[in-house]
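Quick one: structure tokens for this chain, please?
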Amino acid sequence: MPLPRWRRRGWHVLLALLLPPQLLLAQKPAPAPGRAKLAPGLLVPAGRQTGQAQVAVRVRVTDPAAFREWLRQSRLTAQVSQPGASPRTLAVSGLSPAAVQQLAASPFVEFVDVADRPAHEERQLNNSDLSVNAIAAVHSRFPQLAGQGLAVSVKELPFDPNDIDFSGRVINPTAFPAPFSDHATAMATLIGGAGNSSPLGRGVARQVRLTTSDFARLLPDDGAQLAAAGVSVQNHSYGVAIENYYGIESLEYDRQVRQYPTLLHVFSSGNVGTAASPSGPYAGLAGVANVTGQFKMSKNTLTVGATDPGGQVANLSSRGPAYDGRLKPELVAYGEGGSSEAAALVSGIGVLLQQAYRDQHSGALPPAALVKAVLLNSADDLGRPEVDFVSGYGQADALGALTTMRGNQFFSGSVAQGAEQVFTVSVPAGQQFKATLVWNDPEAAANAAKALVNDLDLELVSTSTGQRWLPWALSSFPRLDSLTLPARRRADHLNNAEQITLTVPTAGTYELHVRGFAVPQGPQAFSLAYEATPTALEWRSPQRALNVRPGAAATLLWYWNGSTTATGRLEYRPVGRAQWRAVGAAVPLAPNRYTWAVPDTTTLAQLRFVVGNHDFASDTFAIVQPPAVQVGYTCPDETLLQWRRVPGATGYQVYQLGATTLVPLAQLSTDTALVLSRTQMAQTRYYAVAPLLRGAIAQPGSTIDFATQGTACYFRSFLPRQLVDASLRFDVELGTVFRLRSATLERMGSGGYEAVQTIAPLTSPRFTFTDVPPAAGRYLYRVRLDNVAGQQFYSGTEEAYLLGAGQLQAYPNPVPAGAPLTVVANSATPVLIRLYDMLGRYQRTATAEGLINQIETEGLKPGLYLLQMQQENSPRQTLRVVIQ
């Protein structure tokens, strides 16, 4: 008897709820014998294995020497090399498609994988806001944490080592091959930009050292070289096609992290979040299992997806699960342009966590597993409750992660098969509790059906009641409705990260149990992070280090740990005022954001929420538009910097670029100009200005390079208003009139330049000169400036032609034979020009379409010629021209 339709349709959902994930995935049919050794990209249908195309592959072998001997005896034409990974990973090239199948039959070959594929950058930087992931809050509260003494490798195309945001911190910059990638430069800026160019150029770890690595090689870089360069984090903001299997690249990354346990690898998840996988258990399912690259299937690395500014996972962000049902991505972060930016931000946060640990542990770096556990444990939950395949463990929270690491809210240990370690924690009343277990798992065999090797279990136990809680786990059954089921508490035998949360735990003592469920390669080291957070509101933006623009809309950010239906009264006040002004009477707290219409004023200010009997005040921040620095003049001996006056500012702080960051140069009380000496000009070309409000220094504006602002020694421009005219006018623009007494227009005469017109005093940097020379012709002009000290400064030379309307002139006259003859016509309509010799024989013709035109004289003999101009509805004009 057939099953009812509802039972036929829902059997997989029932299985997803009842059976463990690894058993569900095991239901897929086994591959045909021999084909299990081939990566999906190498599987060639029968009958299509002919052809002359040469194939390159990677192979994982049991015995390299025995494999080379087998290859020699098999008489396969191929070249073998070791690509720098482990000795058992070899590169084999020069194979035919049929030979690849034969290679898989070798008893010494464990797996045949694809070689390097072209990697692509995963979107361009569009925007950056360090407030979303509480990075700005970290900068404000822990300014001493900036990545000092640590190094990050940006693996993709080379970034621009000459960018001033990386000044003095690029490792071996002369070795960077050009051209430089804008995408890579943006990623390096997000990770470690110093903000020297502008506040938008500041990254997470502004003093970390930076280096590059080429993503043409998809295997891990040489670990010894990374260690020698001091690299503790490597960012990978790139991808290939969707690949769903545990390949050689995956296992090599897992192996490298085991070999170098403090090295953190951060990958972008990809930007194909609506696509379907072409292979694997989830093939054909749109919107799931679309992480871009099998190297991201590794277990001991970190994969990051992207959210929009509102904290919602972007549609383009690639989702999990991994090929074997594991959780991917593990984290999400703000990435307006995609997961590239999200990964870069998390790489920067990883650096700060390493520094915080190092500074408290005698210079030692934390295991990557601990950094990962702290990041996952502090993440803010998004989407479906607890973990899911879209946002992983949630939105990265830099401030929460630093609080955990600096508070030593973690344990380390190791367990063998069947062993257990117990850790005791005390949870106060009214505090949520969360704990996350992470371990660096041994690499699995290539193409393993399940990547997990050592399986640990986490359990939480109340010492007072004996109640037990298991970690959250997801259904990995390959159906869309199963993959969207909410997480359930149960043993997890797929992931090497497990998390337990309690929303409203009873105050008391709890035990965290870590057991070795199946540890064939033990003992297994692990890291366990935890936090207990009270009901409270924590401001994320604005921070004291940031400016808020007057009269604009600003997004306020906070983190609310409490009831999802709670509201608060939002208020604002300028510093120095006792009274708070209402902004919103009942603002919902759970969204953690609010758009505020900022008053059009300049002041230091504060915001606060009133929730019940509790006040939650923000940092003091500046409402101000920082001034843009301009160059008044750049003369050989000095440069004048100037800026507009900021209403309400009590002074100005001028910065110059030091060895790595902007450093204070001078603090002015009321002046809005600063003269740089020759010595200061030689030190650096980069300067910025920040206003002072009530003595507090606000954020500076953009940095300028005074040598590239288009202002020479006073002059910005000196141009004739119309090159050919019956009356000559010249427009002049100066950078400033500071210290100037007069400006004089000079015309070249027979005895040199002669004064034509003088303007004194100079009250504006823009003015106009007028001249009517005594006769029609071509003239040269310049402007002389006289300052109060008696010095004189000259503009460049400009030419102009005095001609009546419809008139014609030719230059030079005489003209050397073969040189072009310039014909100037003061006409708004086309003019027909003909050249005749003195016998009236026609020689040349041209049409004057503009004011200045040329007629070639090449081939004409020296002598006297007649140049005739005919303009519509005007009498013909004739000029005598001599060719020498």
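The first strand starts at residue 55 and ends at 61.
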